[in-house]
Structures are given as structure tokens and as C-alpha cells.
Design a protein that fits this description.
This protein has eleven helices and twelve strands. It is of the alpha/beta class. β7, α5 and β8 form a beta-alpha-beta unit.
Length: 321
């Protein structure tokens, strides 16, 4: 069952869509929208080269991300901070309709389906979205989830359609994150909740990452290991730097949210997780420090309560309404 029936609209003009033999048609824009692999493709036809690059990149790297997620999902750091932002949504009544933008492989949506919610998932990548649909179908949630190809800056939904919305580690990929947040605010019902999960902080781009890349390059050169890895990084990831606390609060406020709560998401546990991931890729086998990650998560919480350090976690979780 398509639970998006009745709330779809033209991504450009936000007007109603007509059903035709060919698919969906916007009479105002005179544009047809069809299906791709059994999913409505409602990405605007004039998408930028960067967005099309992201679409192709994440479709072409599906197998890589499936392999990586199998490792990430065992990480105490990953599981703890994902549970934290998902719990912000679990306060909603069961059967609430929740939108996820940039859903990727669909694992966070699956957790909400298991908790009794209905989920509409969107992504710009056909390959990633198809994997999310297969995952939900395999788990028996075909009737409670819908998957649509869509651009997070041009959502194809009528205003006031959703009880809540969330996005995970994808806002920094967008050319215009403010437009995306305004779109999310538009499609939420009055009082609806928006949750942001594990969005990168900006400070490491000027400090740890440049130093870490230099050290890894030197270590790989000494070990005779090819540097590699750049082909796995999308163009948007190369261009973006994450968000400071002030930047993220300003974005949410300018998008129309009035109640905003940011929570640090990872200090020592994040550093251990990402260091072990880099070392694993360098030596060609999994080296995971999960017991150490688990041991320092309580210390992460203490660090996040210190006034100065509260501005410098690895990532942010946020809730807004």
C-alpha cells in the first residue's frame, strides 16, 4: 500500500498531480513524472550537476555502503547515538506518519517501523532507495512504508502532511540546507517534530581531519599501501564542512523552528570509531575497538556537559518543532 497517496504534490509548484496512464502529471508545470524500479521519481528535472553527481555516486557505491553498515551497526558509538535521536521520535503516538529525507539504506526507518510507526522515505539515489525498500519488505513492513525518489530541497508533499520528519548525516550534503529545512517545516503538521541525527560538526575540518589525512598518507607511504579512498567520497562531501552549534541553531531558527535542542553526539567514542575505521581500510582487515568505544560513552556524556566542550562534539543530534 502506498501511504503517500493523497499527500503527493508537484515538487516545483506544490500544485496537485494528476494520475495518467504514463504516471503523474503536473498540469501547472506541464511536467510528467514516471516510475523508476517501481518507485515514483519526483526529482525535479532541472536538478543541478552536483545533485545528479550525488544521485549517481550513491547508486554506484551501494555494495560498499552495505558492507560498511554491517560493521557500523555493531559499533557501540553508532548504536548509542542513533538510539538517542530515534528516541526523540518514539514519544509520538503509534501509527504516526514520519518522513525521512536522505534515507540511504533505510536502517533508521526500519527501527521506527519496528516501533509501530508509518514511514515515508525519500532519497535522490535510486540504488540506495531500492535497498531501503527491499530491507523494509524483507522485514514485513510493505504496508507501513513508502519509498519515493525526491530532492530534499524540493519535497513533493502537501503542506502539513507529516507528524514528524528526520534526516541523518545528510544535511551537510545539500547545496542549500536552509531551503531543505524550510521544506521540512512546511510539510510538518502544526507542532510536528523534526529530528536531525549525527550531523557533522565543523571544527574537525580545520583541525583533526587535515592532520589525520597527512599522518595516514605518511603511514601508508611508509607501509607501501596505496592511499586510495577518495573514490568513495562524494563530491558534496568534498565541498561541505559540517555545522557549528551556532550555524545549526541559526539554520533551524531561520527555517521557522522555535523550540530547538542540540545534543553533542560523540567525543572519545567517535574518535576511536573513526580511527579504527581508517586503520582497517589501511591494513585491509577489520580492526574494531568496540569494547573501548563502549567504555568511554559515559565519559562522552560528561564531556558534553562542560560549557566549552559542549560546542565541540564530533557530531550533533537535534530536535526542533
Amino acid at each position: 500500500m502506498d501511504i503517500s497517496q493523497g499527500i503527493l504534490c508537484c515538487p516545483d509548484c506544490k500544485g496537485p498531480l494528476d494520475h495518467t496512464e504514463a504516471g503523474l502529471y503536473c498540469p501547472a508545470c506541464t511536467v510528467d513524472y514516471g516510475e523508476l524500479d517501481g518507485m515514483w521519481d519526483l526529482v525535479p528535472r532541472d536538478s543541478s550537476a552536483l545533485k545528479l553527481s550525488e544521485r549517481n555516486h550513491y547508486t554506484g557505491k551501494v555494495d560498499y555502503f552495505l558492507h560498511m553498515h554491517a560493521t557500523w551497526n555493531r559499533s557501540p558509538f553508532y548504536r548509542h547515538y542513533h538510539a538517542c535521536f530515534l528516541d526523540e521520535l518514539r514519544i509520538l503516538p503509534h501509527a504516526s506518519l514520519i518522513l525521512e529525507t536522505g534515507c540511504g539504506l533505510g536502517h533508521d526507518g526500519l527501527e521506527l517501523l519496528r516501533s509501530g510507526y508509518r514511514v515515508v522515505e525519500t532519497d535522490i539515489s535510486p540504488g540506495q532507495l531500492a535497498q531501503a525498500r527491499c530491507l523494509h519488505e524483507a522485514e514485513g513492513f510493505s504496508a507501513a512504508s513508502t519509498h519515493l525518489l525526491a530532492d530534499a530541497e524540493n519535497l513533493p508533499f502537501a503542506s502539513g502532511s507529516f507528524d514528524a520528519a528526520f534526516t541523518v548525516a545528510s544535511l551537510h550534503h545539500l547545496p542549500d540546507p536552509l531551503t531543505s529545512l524550510r521544506e521540512v517545516r512546511r510539510v510538518l503538521k502544526p507542532g510536528g517534530i523534526f529530528v536531525l541525527g549525527t550531523e557533522p560538526n565543523s571544527w574537525q575540518n580545520y583541525t583533526i581531519y587535515p592532520l589525520g589525512k597527512a599522518l595516514l598518507k605518511a603511514a601508508r607511504s611508509i607501509a607501501g599501501v596505496p592511499i586510495g579512498g577518495e573514490e568513495m567520497v562524494s563530491e558534496a562531501d568534498k565541498l561541505t564542512e559540517g555545522f557549528s552549534r551556532r550555524q545549526l541553531e541559526d539554520l533551524l531558527r531561520n527555517a521557522g523552528f522555535t523550540r530547538i535542542e542540540l545534543q553533542p553526539a560523540g567525543y572519545l567514542s567517535a574518535a576511536i570509531f573513526f580511527l579504527s575505521t581508517e586503520i582497517s581500510q589501511m591494513v585491509g582487515r577489520d580492526i574494531k575497538l568496540f569494547p573501548l568505544e563502549r567504555a568511554v560513552i559515559p565519559l562522552d556524556g560528561a564531556l558534553g556537559r562542560l560549557p566549552l566542550l559542549s560546542h565541540y562534539p564530533w557530531h550533533w543530534n537535534a530536535a526542533a518543532s
